[in-house]
């Protein structure tokens, strides 16, 4: 990992335009709902100013606030102070060790009483109480378009975190485009409810920055359980937008009760099974949009899966192959909020008019008996089977003993049999890709954002290694 540059551009530039922290100048506008209590723009900016002198002295600060409002206040205080937010994708001991080598002055601001992050820690303080008299000093901070405000991190092919700079202007343009793409510009009074942690790139963009930059309100607490999500939806005013993941949608669909009304469902982090998308729209009586992007590029496309499998690029975003290297099969993203052209590691097929189909990650492409397919394609057909609540194919590593490596699959399907699932699969996929075996499990080892790590699937497969039934 490259070390953080001490002159990395975090401080404002006088030669670039400045963008306000809030898009409006109304001190009474609700910015956040906390336990059904509204926090006004005046109170929010008061809290930001009160936190600035209490921040760690280091320039690079890992924002470990789990309460979404504290995360927002910390994010903005760090930016206004000319410091830099560190937002790693995971907080494992190895990630933190690599983070320390990247930014040797790194410290942690946390609202967790049992935080185990091995960095100098500062507890999020109890801030002075705001009163309406403070409206008289209402002033909106302005940040330079090119101000570096955060480093986000992905895990590269080596497993080490890879840092990516995020400037204020690029982030603003990204979530303005997101609001436009989702049709929210006509819903300025909407409330954003998120089930995704704010430290995750999708949660950071959609549940924190999008409401801040576009003048929407957001709900504060970290809700993960279905009853809590529904309780929060009922507490905040309409129109309501639920920013969530397939794993949380699946949990919500299991509730034996009417679900609160929302205006829009938004999903990301993992592919959404077709029947779950349709079931979610019917249960909430609202359209569902999926978002596509990466930590490197931010969000770049959306689709409504019940209407089309095609993705539509954000305005200004370009997707094309590398004209200077014909051997490069990747699509490169540029334009719009993407400041530096970035490659995508997904198998993508351009269609027309800024639209494309995605066939899974290039690393997921498999070759069996001279035939090619992708795990995403196989997973699509597996999850489209009636009665399959969740499912995933798994290709074990090649064996060195010369023994044939068998494609496997796992399903959560308590109401249907393995034989009936296999019968449907035989009609949909080539015989070379039939799973041997197909195993029923109580649940798949998805993480908090609904992703299914390869290591977790490998561990699940290993647990069946000595009890595997005969191949079908």
Describe this structure in a few short sentences.
With 472 residues, the protein is an alpha/beta fold. Helix content is 26%, strand content 27%. It has two domains: 18-307, ANL, N-terminal domain (Rossmann fold); 369-463, ANL, C-terminal domain (GMP Synthetase, Chain A, domain 3).
Plain-language structure description:
The chain is α/β, with parallel strands linked by helices. It folds into 2 domains: about 20-305, ANL, N-terminal domain (Rossmann fold, 3-Layer(aba) Sandwich), CATH 3.40.50.12780; about 370-465, GMP Synthetase, Chain A, domain 3, CATH 3.30.300. The protein is about 25% helix and about 25% strand. The strands form 6 sheets. Strands 3-2-12-11-13-14-15-16-17-22-21 form an 11-stranded mixed beta sheet, with helices on both faces. Strands 7-6-4-5-9-10 form a 6-stranded mixed beta sheet, with helices on both faces. A 3-stranded antiparallel beta sheet has the order 18-19-20, with no helix packed on it. A hairpin with a 2-residue loop joins strand 2 (about 30-35) and strand 3 (about 35-40). Helix 7 packs across helix 8 (about 275-285).
């Amino acid at each position: 990992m490259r070390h953080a540059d001490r002159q990395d551009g975090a401080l404002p530039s006088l030669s670039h335009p400045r963008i306000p922290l809030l898009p409006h100048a109304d001190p009474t506008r609700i910015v956040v709902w906390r336990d059904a209590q509204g926090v006004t723009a005046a109170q929010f900016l008061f809290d930001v100013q009160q936190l600035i002198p209490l921040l760690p002295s280091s320039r690079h600060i890992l924002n470990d606030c789990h309460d979404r409002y504290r995360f927002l206040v910390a994010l903005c205080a760090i930016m206004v102070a000319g410091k830099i937010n560190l937002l790693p994708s995971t907080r494992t001991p190895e990630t933190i060790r690599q983070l320390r080598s990247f930014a040797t002055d790194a410290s942690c601001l946390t609202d967790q009483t049992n935080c185990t992050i091995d960095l100098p820690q500062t507890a999020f303080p109890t801030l002075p109480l705001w009163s309406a008299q403070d409206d008289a000093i209402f002033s909106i901070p302005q940040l330079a378009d090119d101000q570096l405000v955060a480093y986000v991190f992905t895990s590269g092919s080596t497993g080490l975190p890879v840092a990516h700079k995020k400037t204020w202007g690029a982030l603003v343009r990204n979530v303005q485009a997101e609001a436009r793409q989702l049709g929210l510009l006509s819903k300025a009074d909407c409330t954003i409810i998120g089930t995704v942690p704010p430290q995750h790139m999708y949660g950071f963009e959609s549940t924190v920055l999008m409401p801040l930059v576009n003048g929407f309100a957001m709900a504060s607490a970290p809700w993960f359980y279905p009853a809590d999500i529904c309780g929060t939806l009922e507490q905040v005013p309409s129109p309501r937008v639920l920013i969530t993941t397939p794993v949380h949608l699946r949990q919500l669909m299991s509730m034996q009760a009417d679900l609160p009304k929302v205006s829009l469902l938004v999903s990301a982090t993992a592919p959404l099974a077709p029947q779950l998308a349709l079931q979610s729209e019917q249960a909430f009586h609202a359209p569902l949009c999926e978002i596509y992007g990466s930590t490197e590029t931010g969000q770049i496309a959306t689709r409504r899966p019940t209407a089309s499998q095609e993705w539509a690029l954000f305005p200004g975003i370009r997707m094309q192959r590398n004209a200077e290297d014909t051997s490069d099969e990747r699509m490169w993203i540029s334009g719009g909020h993407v400041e530096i052209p970035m490659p995508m590691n997904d198998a993508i097929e351009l269609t027309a008019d800024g639209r494309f189909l995605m066939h899974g990650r290039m690393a997921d492409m498999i070759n069996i008996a001279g035939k090619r397919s992708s795990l995403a394609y196989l997973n699509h057909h597996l999850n489209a089977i009636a009665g399959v609540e969740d499912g995933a194919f798994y290709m074990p590593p090649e064996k060195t003993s010369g023994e044939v490596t068998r494609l496997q699959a796992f399903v959560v399907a308590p109401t249907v049999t393995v034989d009936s699932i296999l019968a449907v699969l035989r009609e949909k996929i080539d015989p070379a890709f039939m799973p041997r075996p197909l195993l029923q499990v109580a649940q798949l080892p998805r993480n908090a954002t609904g992703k299914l790590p390869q290591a977790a699937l490998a561990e699940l497969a290993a647990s069946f290694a000595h009890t595997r039934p005969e191949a079908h």
